[in-house]
Amino acid sequence: MSAASPRYSAWSLLRARLAGEGFWQPLWSGARLKDGYDVVVVGAGGHGLATAYHLARDHGIKRVAVLEKRLVGYGNVGRNTTIVRSNYLLPENHYFYEDSLRRWERLSRDLNYNVMYSPRGVLDLALSDGEMIGLARRGNAMRLAGIDAELLDRPGVMKFAPELAAAGPRRFDIVGGLLQPRGGTVRHDAVAWGYARAASALGVDIIEDCEVQGVRTAAGVATGVETTRGFVGAGRIVFAVAGHTGAVGRMLGLNLPVETHLLQAMVTEPIKPLIGSVLIYVPPHGEVYVTQSDRGGVVMGGFLDGFPSYTREGQWYRLEDVVGAAVALLPQIASLRILRHWAGTNDMTMDGSFIIDRLRHDNVFLNGGWCYGGFKAIPASGAACATFVATGTAPDLIRAHNLGRFASGHLLDERGGGPFPVRQ
Amino acid sequence: MNRLVCPFCGARELEEFLFHKTLPEAGASEYSAVYERTNRLDDSLEHWQHVHGCRAWLEVRRNPSSGDVLEIRMIGGGRN
Amino acid sequence: MRFSFDGREFLGQRGDTLASALLANGVTLLGRSVKYRRPRGLLALGPEEPNALMTVGETPTVIPNVPAPQLVLRDGLNARSQNRWPSLRFDVASLLQAGGGFFGAGFYYKTFIWPSWRAYEGLIRNLAGLGEAPGAAAIPPPSIEHLACDVLVGGGGAAGLGAALAAARAGASVVLCEREPELGGELDFETATVNGASASDWIGAVRAELAGRGARVLTDATVIGGSDGLVIVHQVPGGLAGRDSMYRVRPRRFVIAMGAVERPIAFTDNDRPGVMLLGAAERLMVRYGVATGQRPLVFGNHDRIYAAAARLVGRGIRPVAVIDTRAGATTESAALARHRSVLERAGVLCLAAHAVLSVDGRGGVRAATVAPLRTPGAARRIECDCVLVSGGWSPSVHAGLHEGGERRYLEGNGAFIAASQPEWRLCAGAANGALELAAALAEGFAAGERAAREAGAAQGAGPVPVASGDPEPRLVPFWRSPASIAAEKRQFVDLQNDVTVADLRQALAEGFVDIEHVKRYTTLGVGTEQGRTGGALGAGILAELKGETLGSVGASRTRPPYHPLTLAAIVGHRAGQQLRVLRRTPLHEWHEANGGVLEPAEFWMRTRYYRANGIDAFAAGIVEADRVRKHGGVVDGSTLGKIEVAGADAARYLDRLYLSKASTIKVGRSKYMVNLREDGMVLDDGIVLRLAEDRFLATTGSGHAEHMLAHFERYRDTEWSGAEVALANVTEAWGVIVAAGPASRAALGAALGPEWTARIGQLAHMEFADGMHGGAELRVLRASFSGELAFELHCRPGLTVGLWQGLVEAGLPPYGLEALDILRVEKGYLVGSEMNGQTTPGDLGMDGLLKLGNPCVGVALLDRPAFREPSRPKLVGLKATDGKAVILGGAQITRASAPSRSLGYITSSAYSPALGEWIALALVARSDAAEGMNLVARDPLRGGDVPVRVTAPVHFDPGAERMKS
Predict the structure, then answer these.
(1) Residue pair C632/C623 in contact by the 8 Å Cβ criterion
(2) Closest CA to A113 of A6, A31, A202
(3) Do A247 and B36 touch (CB under 8 A)?
(4) Is the bond preceding C865 in cis, omega lying within 30 degrees of 0?
(5) Could you tell me which CATH number the domain at A114-183+259-349 has?
């Protein structure tokens, strides 16, 4: 374990200034790979790190390792549009995501790392009275669960987000919207680094450049993982590998109800504050969510590229679709320039909701199928998954998110898209 | 990968095509065919339709890690 | 030309850029940095310029962050500097500089935790961000052009011109794009010759020859990125968005010859105005006649600093010193000896193995501190008015790194090139590491010839042009001058984001060791210049701090776009009303002319209500619906999806797609049918007409026709191949008028004449008649979506208006979607609100259809345990218990005793004029869905709780007497 990272505060910054070199310590790293662990978590993304953190913090499991193929936070946790919200329709989902949102609210303090939770409001826009009914259905479901939601009419939308008033009549204009005031954004990289630092401080070994290539079993039980750095024994194994969930299935001889698709996102050059919240606009056959980062870049994301891919090279025509919807919503941003554009690999499930469950063996767990809702789920996912792994029983919050639900018909299909990831 | 070569129409922009689904292994149950995916990293057998073209249904074998199209053939004789 | 900068008026020359004109006017302070608000001048002349970014235009239609050196001056141009308040010269936030050590890399992750980030965010957001946010749309859509060619050449410098020339001579069709307004790249600054002619003469000759051979030359045109044979090129004349063009180029071969970007060297206070890249200063002088200073100090790590200094002497400007970081041991080339002797004669101090440690001056450079690298303590101060720095060149290879391309490190360049290329791409020239003119040109020429040959051009390209110019620069990588730890806080690596050497060192100390982590943690190279200067420099310094080679440190991954691209350019014409296709029914103009209020429904425009009937949809809908029940009306049903299914196997084929059988429908009759998705959920419903033994018309929900056609085609072609079935989407081949209400039969007779009157009179429910009217086909189907006696008229689009007009005149007033919806809610008919992809046929009360036992698509997966559980929803009707309260779609249903447990929700509701109260359709858990159950409709968003009672889904005329009358 490395020398402890000092507690962060404005005071620490002053002290660092006086102390000069040597004051700051690595947030993580320095860990040497041991022969075996109580729990091996595969994947140092948001879910893997949060799971490891909670295993150590909440359940006192001392010997935990996170094995990462490349770098801490190199996957989707750093490739999303940073939106957090709990405005889900189905109780199984909104209670879970609300748990997550409550954890986001205090995460900077819990981790002693500023993840810049910005409750700026998430506004789903309705483009017809029919869509208003759909939003009311969702908002009322949230309110029944004690989650904040407000239904805005058109003047209410324009008052909340005056930047929307700059447009003339849109081809698909705004009728109203569903606002979740506590929804907002979080600084994505900070989440990975903050969890890594906190987990490391609790004794978790975070091992980068260590790719897991197989699971070793004996008598029907997993005994460890084969890695590029040799065999690592494990009492329990958790896979949290996002776009590679399907490949984990193959590793274990399973055809999982997941499929990997690309989701593109992009950011423009920074400008002074223009967009104060998160805006979600869904014209027919398209979708865009727009926000502005604290640095000033307009961040946009849309819908899936439309076919399975691991390439991380998004399709130009989908970029056109997403940007087209953004400019339809906010014509004033047309003269801004895209600086960066990226694609994440999403493990889409056949009902659009995630899966946390045992995988083939009693001591192998899957934390995956996050579709494009993974980032906002990280705090709750880590806590719930850790409880499952530590106690052997799935906590209520994730009990419905089992792997058997597809066969039993207990589907968690928020959008009614069915077993077609592209429509989820 | 930004084009597919339709056996009937020739090379066309990918946006003319619509991916439908990856195909199950032979002998898969109805449930498995609908819900489960083989998730091969380098070899994916899929159904696509040239929906903004000749409307033929195509069986496409692709490498989803590289984007390379390995094989493409028309199903059902491209009627209509 | 007059222009204004920060409210002051200036004069500039035609052909100037904003940067050159400002410098010519003696304005050197052009911006402030984002974080520390340090005063900044011009560093570079390309899009890599990190400092001199301007907000152009008048509020609200401003364009922010325009690099001044890329913005061609135009009369009346109005530009403002950024990141300053109240003025560029005095900025309040620049006081933050005092806290330089406090605000090190990632300081914001360590503080602003109490009480919450939100408490600080507003202030920080206002300080961050570069230019002014546009308040209104500022630019028109660009033109978009699709090009196909044998060879696309990116870059119009020596290598690119060579490549284009060779390819064109070989007989290939060629497109050449060059980022700058003029061809030549770095060529025109060199005392270079090609085939004995001056470089500028040769460029002119090449341009003429390319034109003669039909090649297309695009200037002001930047390659944005390219993969798998598609290259995106963006052309921005004058450097200001608004007159741009996009090109989507499909070349057989793509030659990447986009040159290299000069990079600086970090030293203390290297961000001061007056510290400029050597190449930029030379170009300023040659192209715009602007001298950066009268007493420049030249600083670098290669032979070309001597050549440039000698050229300065030739132009009457005597550099005060040439500082070379390399030890003197390098062998003298003939060219170098020549330059040195010029400098010696002019009395220019030349120091080898020295470096600039720092500069003095705040708003400009007053002096430089120079020291031997072996003994940095023995520093001397040299007065100068600018420092022209060159640390080498980083190949512009981004376009060669897409599709998972790897980099290769070239030690001699201190830079990376693309390691290998897919078949369709070649790299050449400085972009490929060839810095010597003759080599770059030869490499470009060879690449062009090869590209042409591979693209199928058969001729030879002839001899390679022989060039002579500056030889190899013999660069020895040098990234930063020695500095104390304290001074590292003022050694700037990325000027736009104020990333210093101290920040890189801190990142390493905190365990951010990998270049990708360093980039994310320090924000190195994520600015508008996309790491062109700072990224390369940062990687070099990082390698030094880590004690590794740059080759092993690597460079962070580049992503498209290579060059910032406006959203307008991406969207093209698909903006505003053109976002999606607009579908109008044949009656569109009639509706508009007669007070119809049209709203989008998917791509269609449909009439919600008619203004004459009420002030809004709610009021008018009630009037219109009431009139239909009492008398009658017509509604435009043209958007109804229609798929014709024909062939010997048509009936059996449809049997497999629908819950009930099409094969039992008699010719001339129709049937209401439902089909399922593969997973058993209801997909769509509609009436299927049997037109002939082997011909059916399947109707679908509005906007569903395309999806349903694909679904139909898929089963025909992939699952049951061999079925003799032809399918056609005939949605827009027919206009549809629905005449409904007790008076509809008589009105139809009056409008269609006696022949049709008799036929219509004989039509049974769900029966139809085909015939002619007004010289064209007409089909009349007796079917109802309102519960009234009703007829669907299918006619040719051109006849629809006449027929409609006739019916209106025969006494059937028009009604809209609002009334249609009231009527169908009264009858418990389904739309997408109920068939929402989450409901099974059992949920929707289709047990009768299920009992038929037809093993169609989707049935197999209905046999899952969850679908039989009491928590599964059931379609019911609801009414307010008090008979008065408003109940709205989207309200959640609970028991009074368990108000936070949802049992379901209201899918649709309406005020029923026929019943005089609000009615609703709802999906409620079977456990609580029995008729007569008392529940609560909870609508905290819009009102409150309304006690409701469960009813049958059919609220009106349950015996269906009216439509059978």
Answers:
(1) no
(2) A6
(3) no
(4) no
(5) 3.30.9.10
Instruction: Say which CATH superfamily domain C264-391 falls into.
Output: FAD/NAD(P)-binding domain (3.50.50.60)
CB contact under 8 Å between B57 and C860, yes or no, is no
Residue-wise pLDDT for C489-523, tens only, equals 999 999 999 999 999 999 999 999 999 999 999 99
- The domain defined by A35-79+189-257+352-423 carries CATH number 2.60.120.10: no
**Amino acid residing at A305:** D
Query: Which residue(s) pair with C726 in the sheet?
Result: C646
Tell me if the pTM is above 0.90.
yes
Q: Which of C366, C405, C406, C404 is nearest to C386 (CA)?
A: C366
Residue C21, CA distances (Å) to A419, C16, C293 in order: 61, 6, 15
Put simply, the chain C residues between 390 and 409 with a CB less than 8 A from any chain B CB are 403-404
Q: Out of B2, B31, B57, whose CB is closest to C718?
A: B57
Q: Range(s) for CATH 3.50.50.60 in chain C?
A: 143-261+395-468, 264-391
Identify the sign of the CA torsion C36, C40, C44, C46. Answer: positive
Q: Does this complex have an ipTM over 0.90?
A: yes
Task: Please give the average pLDDT of every successive group of 10 residues along chain C, which has 965 residues.
Answer: 96 95 96 92 95 95 95 96 90 74 86 94 92 90 94 97 98 97 83 90 96 97 90 93 92 97 97 97 92 96 95 95 86 86 96 97 94 95 98 90 82 90 93 94 97 94 90 93 95 95 96 95 92 91 95 84 90 88 97 97 96 98 98 98 97 97 98 97 98 98 94 92 91 97 97 95 97 95 97 96 97 98 97 96 96 95 97 98 96 97 98 98 98 98 96 96 89
Task: Tell me which residue range forms the domain holding B22.
Answer: 3-78
Topology, domain C869-965? Elongation Factor Tu (Ef-tu); domain 3 (2.40.30)
For domain C588-638+734-823, give the fold: Gyrase A; domain 2 (3.30.1360)
Calpha distance B68→B64 (Å, rounded): 7
Contact B39 A316 (CB under 8 A): no
Which residue in the block uniquely carries the two structure tokens 């005020």? C911
Enumerate the H helices of C170-291 as residue ranges: 199-212, 278-288
- What CATH code would you report for C2-127? 3.10.20.440
The span from the first CA to the last CA of chain C, in angstroms, equals: 83
